[in-house]
Design brief:
Layout: H1 6-14, H2 17-25, H3 35-54, E1 58-61, E2 64-66, H4 69-80, H5 82-99, H6 104-125, H7 134-151, H8 157-208, E3 216-220, E4 226-229, H9 231-237, H10 241-246, H11 249-252, H12 255-270, E5 275-283, E6 289-301, E7 304-314, H13 316-338, E8 342-347, E9 352-355, H14 357-363, H15 367-372, H16 375-380, H17 383-397, E10 404-411, E11 417-429, E12 435-444, H18 446-462, E13 468-473, E14 478-481, H19 483-489, H20 493-496, H21 511-524, E15 526-534, E16 540-551, E17 557-566, H22 568-582, H23 592-609, E18 613-621, H24 623-630, H25 632-649, E19 655-660, E20 663-668, H26 674-689, E21 692-694, E22 697-699, E23 702-710, H27 717-733, E24 738-741, H28 744-766, E25 769-778, E26 784-795, E27 799-801, H29 803-813, H30 815-838, E28 843-847, H31 850-855, H32 858-870, E29 877-882, H33 883-886, H34 893-902, E30 906-912, H35 919-924, E31 929-932, H36 934-937, H37 945-959, E32 963-966, H38 972-981, E33 985-986, H39 997-1011
Parallel strand pairs: 23-24, 26-28, 28-29, 29-30, 30-31, 31-32, 32-33
Antiparallel strand pairs: 1-2, 3-4, 3-7, 5-6, 6-7, 8-9, 8-12, 10-11, 11-12, 13-14, 13-17, 15-16, 16-17, 18-20, 18-23, 19-20, 21-22, 25-26, 25-33, 26-27
Length: 1012
């Protein structure tokens, strides 16, 4: 080791004295106000000193240097704390990194470990910095530099061995001594500051008579840390003096009071005020609240606050008493608001009672009289009750009862007697528990006492009551029953005691009935209603049952009381009377009274749900002639048969009523549109026109029907009936056996539909329809070997009639069956003709209505026979159906599709994507083609949502073994996009409009053959 090492290190250590000068030079006047800035400033200064020290190191080798930065940072961490030391560590570490060399990271590690040791030591000894001894400071320095030398071991071994050989002795000799000396200088300055504050404190304590009086006193710093407290404050907060000194002022404060206190304290420190006083809450050691009146003043030196003294007067008892009084006043105010309760407020020490106006009314005197002499009330108590009242009052005042409560008689000024229920409670007491104030209410229970007497009488009557009664526990087990219970059920008490009430359950009620009843009992505690029950012999009978729940103190169900009576016979009688009053005895239909009731309820329901209904008024044509010629008995038979036929023409939810004579009404509920009403009216006309067998005679009648709609035509029962009656007469005037709507606009539409139906029937007979064909192009090759068949109707006067107009009418009237059968037959024959003529198969796609699947009956067999007869072969015909049809299991879709498959017919799913698009149904049924609806093709562009959707449909269909046809293709861009997606076929105006068979043959069959 070279002897020259000692001198550079000692010289370097001398720079540490700058730290002491920094400590003395840093201003502390506004330390608390700018605490963060103050600490950051110290860190910057210490970092600057460190960088200065590092600029004059002892160099062992290039990049391996030694200086006293470790001493500096350890002392900084010990005396200045974490934040300044962190700033200094960052600055010196950055400087060391800039110097570089092979030991740069070890140098940075030494910087960090030195600051960390000092800061950690400070965390344990912060309160004892002023009294730290030479030995402790030397020990800190030795530890820091022992760690520093340990870091050298991370150098290459030869280098580390050379460094430790030369530097260990100087470092462990000089650096701990430097740490001890600098630390002692800083410690001494802290000690001097502490002694100055202690002297000020002692002087202040002396002048303030610190330990005298019943006031808690605390001396604190500007940081709200307590440095001296008296014994009274320790008693108030239930902490020892040592415990309080470790706690801060704010730590004990109630959060809601802290803001106001902090504002005043800041003003005190700024010199705006010299003292302040406020009511403040603190938390005692046991968690209780201590209410104090806090007075805060300060000791200044050189215009700067040195010490803060606070006095605390315990006002907990007074505050709680005031709160109790306030709560009592609120309770009294509620009593006042009730209006029917008398209230009294007794100041016990002064024996002064205040009563309200209601008390005076009960007593029959003026309020002034009662206030002037409160003994009037006590003197008016019946002598037999007065002693008991005074005894109850005394027991409560002694604390032997939780509240004062008694009923007594009061003799009023006019000589009458009233029963008074007197209730009260002590609301304020002194520190020794002596009552100071008592409040209560007077309730006039004269009427309730009379009712109680009546109840007692009723209880005696109950024992012989005809009403059955039982008491159940919370789980439904029977505890007791009365005699009527045994008489009605057939069980004696021993047979049912302890049994569950489900013993009497009857299947007639249904499972939901008991679940809903039990749910209401759980939620509301009571239930009332009709219920079927089973007797011991198995007979079922109807009861009127009332169940109530009795709760325990925790508001849990304790008992249930069930009271019931047998109402079977009464209900039968009521039902008979109600039936006679509301139903026609001949037909069993609702009469006019019941009809009006139905109409009223339906109007309310439709108004609430925004629905519509139709009222049909029917009058039988020529009924009088039958009645006159065949007699009233035959007329009655005809009316009964008419009512039966009417009921068969409507739904179960609709209402058929007889107004009297030959007049009937029908309420069609929840109608979607007018066409449904027309369909029902037409069915009624058809049903009523069928022959009637009346004895030996066969008779025929018809009906005239007037129709009115709610709410379009009227919004009252009377108006609806009147309008329907007027419409019915209009139907009679037009020739009977028809229906007529009330409003002119609807009547005009009805005429249009009626004529359209008539024209449609003639069109079927005259075969005014024709078939058009639109080609379906194979996108990959451009070939056309498929076409969709489209139906067209050219009327001689109407001209071209759109399928959108006549197809729905055809479906509603059933004409679609004949039209559909004609289309299927013509298309099959056309396909066969082209097959024979051009020796190629052109598959024709035919749209088939769901109505055909449901009602086609013999048409289906006829068509299958035709296909077999024509021998079209597989692929000649494709039937197009909609997605909704797959969901209707009742139509036998699956069986018919299988039949088509056996006949070589393929199936296409039309308008795919606009309905349910269920993959489950696609897998279930044999579908050959999916037709993407034109709504997805119309706006088809690259990177659009429609593009993604179409692509997904195509991929899905191919995975399921189906081909895809795109409808409505009108541009080359659409065709190109679809072809790139892998779509199989397309149709639309880009390729061709629908054309006649001859045009199609010329355009696509003959030309294609010629080109071939």
């Amino acid at each position: 080791m070279e002897q020259g090492i000692f001198f550079p290190l000692i010289q370097n250590a001398a720079l540490l004295l700058a730290l002491v000068f920094v400590y003395d030079a840093i201003p502390r006047r506004h330390k608390r106000k700018y605490f963060l800035l103050w600490r950051l400033g110290i860190g910057v200064i210490v970092g600057a000193i460190g960088m200065t020290i590092m600029s004059t190191p002892w160099v062992f080798a290039p990049g391996i240097i030694f200086d006293t930065r470790s001493v500096l940072l350890a002392v900084s961490g010990l005396f200045f704390g974490g934040l300044p030391t962190t700033v200094a560590v960052i600055m010196t570490a950055a400087y060391r990194y800039a110097i570089g060399g092979p030991a740069v990271w070890i140098g940075i590690a030494v910087i960090i470990s030195s600051g960390a040791v000092g800061a950690l030591w400070r965390s344990r000894r912060k309160s004892m910095l002023a009294s730290m001894g030479w030995g402790e400071l030397y020990g800190i320095g030795f530890l820091v530099h022992l760690i520093m030398l340990s870091w050298m071991l991370f150098l290459p071994w030869e280098t580390a061995k050379g460094v430790l050989t030369q530097i260990t002795l100087p470092v462990l000799t000089i650096y701990p001594l430097a740490t001890m000396m600098v630390g002692r200088l800083l410690s001494r300055r802290i000690e001097i500051e502490r002694d100055d504050k202690m002297r000020l404190q002692d002087d202040f304590l002396f002048r303030s008579q610190f330990d005298a009086g019943n006031i808690g006193i605390a001396i604190g710093t500007v940081d709200k840390c307590w440095i001296k407290v008296n014994s009274r404050l320790c008693q108030m907060f239930k902490y020892s003096e040592k415990e309080l000194l470790r706690l801060g002022w704010d730590q004990l404060s109630h959060p809601d009071d802290l803001y106001t206190d902090t504002q005043q304290f800041e003003r005190l420190l700024l010199g705006e005020i010299d003292q302040y006083e406020l009511k403040k809450r603190f938390f005692a050691k046991d968690g209780t609240l201590v209410y104090t009146l806090m007075s805060v003043s300060c000791k200044r030196s050189g215009g700067r606050v040195q010490l803060v003294i606070a006095g605390f007067l315990d006002i907990t008892e007074q505050t709680l008493a005031e709160q109790s009084v306030s709560a009592s006043r609120e309770q009294l105010q509620l009593v006042l608001d009730s209006g029917e309760l008398g209230f009294w407020d007794w100041d016990i020490p002064r024996d002064d009672v205040i009563r309200n106006e209601r008390c005076a009314q009960m007593l029959g005197v003026s309020h002034n009289e009662l206030m002037e002499n409160h003994r009037i009330w006590v003197n008016a108590i019946h002598p037999d009750d007065r002693v008991e009242m005074l005894r109850a009052m005394e027991l409560h005042l002694q604390g032997r009862t939780a509240s004062y409560s008694i009923d007594y008689r009061l003799k009023t000024a006019d000589g009458t007697e009233r029963w008074i229920r007197d209730r009260g409670r002590v609301v304020a007491s002194d520190g020794q528990g002596k009552p100071l104030r008592m409040c209560g209410i007077h309730v006039d229970i004269t009427q309730s006492r009379k009712q109680q007497e009546s109840l007692e009488l009723a209880a005696s009557v109950y024992n012989s009551s005809s009403e059955a009664m039982s008491v159940l526990d919370a789980k439904g087990h029977i505890i007791t029953i009365n005699a009527a219970f045994s008489r009605i059920t057939g069980y004696n008490e021993s047979e049912v005691q302890g049994q569950h009430v489900s013993l009497f359950n009857c299947d007639t009620n249904g499972e939901n009935f008991y679940r809903e009843m039990n749910q209401q009992l759980r939620e509301k505690g009571h239930w009332q209603g009709e219920m079927w029950q089973k007797r011991k012999n198995g007979d079922e009978y109807l009861i009127w049952l009332t169940v109530n729940t009795i709760y325990d103190r925790q508001h849990r169900p304790h008992r249930r009381v069930a009271l019931f009576s047998d109402i079977t016979e009464m209900k039968q009688q009521e039902q008979l009377i109600w039936q006679q009053a509301n139903y026609d005895p001949l037909t069993g239909l609702p009469n006019r009274r019941m009809l009006l009731d139905y109409l009223g309820r339906e109007i309310i329901a439709c108004e609430r749900r925004k629905r519509h209904f139709a009222l049909l008024f029917l009058d039988l044509d020529f009924f009088k002639e039958i009645n006159d010629t065949l007699g009233h008995d035959m007329g009655d038979q005809l009316l009964v048969e008419c009512s039966r036929r009417l009921q068969l023409c409507v739904r179960d939810s609709d209402v058929v009523a007889r107004l009297g004579g030959d007049e009937f009404t029908v309420i069609l509920r929840d109608i979607a549109d007018q066409s449904g009403v027309e369909r029902v009216a037409a069915q009624i006309l058809k049903a009523l026109a069928e022959p009637y067998q009346l004895g030996e005679h066969t008779s025929y009648i018809s009906a005239s029907i007037g129709i009115t709609l709610y709410p379009e035509d009227a919004d009252s029962r009377e108006a609806l009936l009147k309008h329907a009656d007027q419409a019915m007469y209009a139907a009679k005037a037009q020739g009977r056996n028809r229906f007529n709507f009330f409003t002119p606009s609807m009547q005009e539409y009805a005429h249009f539909r009626m004529h359209l139906i008539q024209d449609l029937r003639l069109a079927v007979e005259r075969q005014e329809f024709s078939l058009f064909f639109q080609p379906i192009v194979e996108l990959k090759s451009g070939d056309i070997h498929k076409a969709e068949v489209l139906l067209r109707w050219q009327h001689e006067t109407r001209g071209y009639v759109s399928p959108a107009d006549f197809i729905p009418v055809a479906e509603e009237t059933g004409l679609i069956l004949e039209i559909g059968a004609w289309v299927l037959e013509q298309a099959a024959r056309q396909s066969k003709e082209w097959q024979q003529k051009h020796e190629r198969i052109v598959q024709l796609s035919i749209n088939k209505s769901p109505i055909q699947f449901r009602d086609e009956g013999e048409y289906f067999s006829r068509w299958m026979s035709l296909l077999k007869e024509l021998q079209l072969g597989p692929g000649g015909i494709c039937v197009e159906i909609t997605e909704g049809l797959l969901l209707d299991a009742a139509t036998g879709v699956s069986d018919k599709l299988l039949a088509y498959r056996d006949a070589g017919i393929q199936v296409a799913l039309d308008d795919f994507g606009t309905g349910y698009s269920s993959l489950a149904y696609l897998k279930k049924f044999d579908i050959d083609y999916l037709k993407i609806d034109q709504s997805f093709i119309r706006n088809l562009v690259d990177d659009s949502s429609d593009h993604s959707l179409c692509e997904a449909i195509i991929v899905m269909a191919h995975k399921l073994g189906m081909k895809v046809i795109a409808e409505g293709v009108e541009s080359e861009d659409q065709r190109e996009l679809l072809r790139n997606m892998g779509c199989d076929y397309a149709q639309g105006y880009l390729f061709s409009r629908p054309m006649s068979a001859a045009e199609f043959e010329q355009e696509f069959l003959l030309d294609a053959k010629a080109n071939a």
